[in-house]
Write a structure and sequence with these properties.
By secondary structure, the chain is mainly alpha-helical. It contains 14 helices and no strands. Residues 61-78 have low confidence and may be disordered.
Length: 277
């Protein structure tokens, strides 16, 4: 269960009815504000995202009030005894609910490994909020971030057009077709660690036995954590050898390609590791 801004359907209608809102089935700003207000009043992480815990709390208040207290005990034992309940209030409930299956599948199953993984995901996604790459660059932004792709005045015809920008920057590499195929945009960065490129989407889909290439938005809507775990396990997990800052730096280089945001990543690693160990 994961409902958020932009979601639509019968589950959204049911949610809106419980919150006393017009049940149009469209998760808009008013619905998000109502969810945040409910979460604040009930001691949940106020992120406006309806994960398993928030859903059970809202829907179960009238129907089955005993459901909510059972959630935490069901989660922790599934990942080698890790104290996932300690993460409540530090990480959104919707993310915590995904950790057991994700960590078990990709063997991110010790306090050190999980703390490294969550610290990187949290930073890359601005606190588990951003699941789609922002490619809405200005003329100056394109020249600064992608100088080799936009020489001279070329950036002027691409600025503020994410589809054109991604198609050019990611076209012809990472398994994507040339710019005119627009596969660079189709397989742009999604998920908590920004899975990028047709090759990665294809490999991730095979790993979970699902057609991700035909449905790339699943990476951001259904599998933001799982896709990040696949990438992390494949490329960076072996670097998670201890709790030192040197190791956080090494893992950051693996995920980011550099050390952008390193102090924040170190801060969150220490926070999560002290909760989990």
């Amino acid at each position: 269960m994961l409902l958020k801004l932009g979601s639509k359907g019968d589950d959204v209608k049911k949610l809106q009815e419980k919150l006393g809102l017009p049940s149009d089935g469209d998760f808009g700003k008013k619905t998000e504000d109502a969810v945040k207000s409910f979460q604040t009043k009930n001691g949940l992480t106020s992120d406006g995202i309806v994960g398993e815990n928030t859903w059970k709390k809202i829907i179960g208040e009238v129907v089955t009030p005993q459901v909510a207290p059972q959630v935490a005990p069901q989660v922790a034992p599934q990942v080698g005894g890790l104290k996932l309940d300690k993460l409540k209030g530090h990480i959104p409930d919707a993310v915590i609910a995904q950790i057991p299956d994700t960590a078990a599948k990709f063997k991110i199953d010790t306090p050190v490994k999980l703390a490294h993984f969550l610290a990187q995901c949290g930073h890359e996604s601005a606190g588990f909020k951003v699941v789609n790459e922002n490619l809405n660059y200005s003329v100056d932004g394109l020249k600064k971030i992608f100088p080799k792709y936009f020489p001279g005045n070329l950036s002027e015809s691409y600025a503020r057009n994410p589809e054109k920008i991604a198609s050019k920057v990611y076209g012809g590499r990472m398994g994507n077709g040339p710019e005119e195929t627009k596969e660079g945009f189709k397989f742009r960065g999604r998920g908590y660690i920004q899975l990028t490129g047709k090759d990665n989407y294809t490999a991730f889909g095979k790993a979970i036995n699902e057609d991700i290439v035909s449905n790339p938005d699943l990476v951001s809507t259904k599998y933001p954590l799982l896709s990040a775990a696949w990438f992390f396990s494949k490329n960076c997990l072996a670097k998670c050898v201890d709790a030192s800052e040197a190791t956080v730096t090494s893992v950051t280089k693996c995920v980011n390609g550099g050390t952008i945001g390193l102090p924040d990543r170190i801060k969150h690693f220490n926070e999560y590791y002290n909760l989990l160990k």
